[in-house]
Amino acid sequence: xxxxxxxxxxxxxxxxxxxxxxxxxxxxxxxxxxxxxxxxxxxxxxxxxxxxxxxxxxxxxxxxxxxxxxxxxxxxxxxxxxxxxxxxxxxxxxxxxxxxxxxxxxxxxxxxxxxxxxxxxxxxxxxxxxxxxxxxxxxxxxxxxxxxxxxxxxxxxxxxxxxxxxxxxxxxxxxxxxxxxxxxxxxxxxxxxxxxxxxxxxxxxxxxxxxxxxxxxxxxxxxxxxxxxxxxxxxxxxxxxxxxxxxxxxxxxxxxxxxxxxxxxxxxxxxxxxxxxxxxxxxxxxxxxxxxxxxxxxxxxxxxxxxxxxxxxxxxxxxxxxxxxxxxxxxxxxxxxxxxxxxxxxxxxxxxxxxxxxxxxxxxxxxxxxxxxxxxxxxxxxxxxxxxxxxxxxxxxxxxxxxxxxxxxxxxxxxxxxxxxxxxxxxxxxxxxxxxxxxxxxxxxxxxxxxxxxxxxxxxxxxxxxxxxxxxxxxxxxxxxxxxxxxxxxxxxxxxxxxxxxxxxxxxxxxxxxxxxxxxxxxxxxxxxxxxxxxxxxxxxxxxxxxxxxxxxxxxxxxxxxxxxxxxxxxxxxxxxxxxxxxxxxxxxxxxxxxxxxxxxxxxxxxxxxxxxxxxxxxxxxxxxxxxxxxxxxxxxxxxxxxxxxxxxxxxxxxxxxxxxxxxxxxxxxxxxxxxxxxxxxxxxxxxxxxxxxxxxxxxxxxxxxxxxxxx
Length: 712
Hints:
Elements (H helix, E strand, L loop, with lengths): L3 E8 L14 H5 L12 E5 L7 E6 L2 E7 L5 E8 H4 L14 E4 L2 E6 L2 E6 L4 E7 L5 E6 L4 E6 L2 E5 L6 E2 L8 E3 L14 E3 L5 E8 L5 E6 L6 E6 L9 E8 L5 E3 L9 E7 L5 E7 L5 E8 L5 E9 L11 E2 L6 E6 L6 E6 L4 E4 L7 E7 L3 E6 L8 E6 L5 E3 L6 E6 L5 E7 L6 E6 L4 E7 L11 E8 L5 E8 L9 E6 L19 H7 L4 E6 L8 H5 L7 H14 L5 E11 L1 H12 L6 E5 L10 H8 L6 H7 L11 E7 L8 H13 L4 E5 L10 H16 L2
Parallel strand pairs: 39-40, 39-41, 41-42, 42-43, 43-44
Antiparallel strand pairs: 1-37, 2-3, 3-4, 4-5, 6-7, 7-8, 8-9, 10-11, 11-12, 12-13, 14-16, 15-16, 16-19, 17-18, 19-20, 21-22, 22-23, 23-24, 25-26, 26-27, 27-28, 29-30, 30-31, 31-32, 33-34, 34-35, 35-36, 37-38, 38-40
């Protein structure tokens, strides 16, 4: 087995005797959360703002529980509040305990429908603090929920105690959209409004989509069917014009930043300075290889200076704003991949690089928070399958790992910087919640969560380590039946994604696998996955190796996985199928057409067929424009090799998909018709890019039945 190393066995589902185990239904496997087969972490777990040291709260069984970690390996207290108690003073009783935010130790606040409420722990009742119109969207609260920014259509409003519809923008042209996320949620953008530290001003994204082509979607719920147009900028075509506005609640006026780049450049990572005097924006050219971090006056919107620039031969991708140091309005941390891995750099607001804080050869995911002397970060550590928390001394750079157990840790630090809440799982631990003493590095279990799969027939899972053609290390996962017999020959389903910003193989519950994979495994199948070049948590070189040739190197890495499978005596080498969605759908068809002798069957969901039909922001980062990279677009198009198809192929698409528009799949079907190639096609009417809700069970039944029936 040259170049292949098996790394370990994961046993999932407890140690109950085989004859006592229950079989999973497909519905349970596809919708585990709704069927009680997902680890039951405490909901809305958080530190109590202004409470005693170590005070925390969580929701369990529709009851809010307040407790306190004493630092002596124990939790004490246990005040409890029911949804019936919280409903006192409200217009209607709560059907479910809402997620809450602590205002202080005696009061928490929450949203219910179109109102914000405050619950007083002493008075034991709720009172309305803010009302919004019933048709609000994109709400963003501030000042203890006494203020809220929200949108209706393309317009932006603010709700105050006196005025529930204070207009910020009133654009009559629906092409101009205020207060919503722009640039199609790329560059770490997840919302469209940003309150100043004292809530006296609101920064917001605004986009002008006048030059962006309309894309037609069919609504079949009306009689007759009706047309719904969405704005969809395709690679190489005209894109939206983005900017940032600032509304002052004092002057009741809007100013716009003096954007420095071209109309179609990107404005990203909006950050308020701690004193509210300045706004910082990472401006990126449309080519996505030249970034300017710019400073603006928050009152006038005037450009002050560029603090620094970053350039890249392939791309520069800002995904985080500025992280200002505690008690400082002049020094901040900037996250950058400029040295090949995401690391921390300390700057001042004049643009001077003070120092590189970290020099990790692994990926930092996020900044967790600060103590007086340290910054806490979340990152992979040396094993990219894991996630850990580290503290880094800002003065001498000393690094201390705070999460010790192998696996995946998600942490939340209290305001004092003394404790971390740690939600943890691994390939051998279903779930656990710990509290960690930051100074002493001591971890105490708060909640040991039961494995919901104990008593069910769940298969075996192995991590494998492979070597690509050039020696690059790849990580894979192989799921076997519970009653695996090494003397049998098993068919295989390869589950693939293969694109940026995704990782499938992780040291977390079930190894990162979906539960339906175990359902299939127990139908006497092997389910195999490899994270190839382009996937996340491996650094810039690993991710950017796909530049201008999407799918090409990724396919070779998948074939490395196939070659490994064929070294296993228990693999039926003539019965290998492949399935994936979105980028994974693109990869599925790519593999079926370029390696037709390797796969009998493929199921491709929501696939990209030709990158010229994909959106500007994502597509041009990885492929440049069609004019700049004509050979790359031609080579990666799936329309050119249709005649190569030998196996059975099922194509699936949501008819209202506004991410990978259905033009992709229909064009592929048309090409198959013209080439005399038979394929199967199944639409999901009115579903978007992913089939969600109860219909997902129907989807996976369709996918897996097709695999079982045709992979022969």
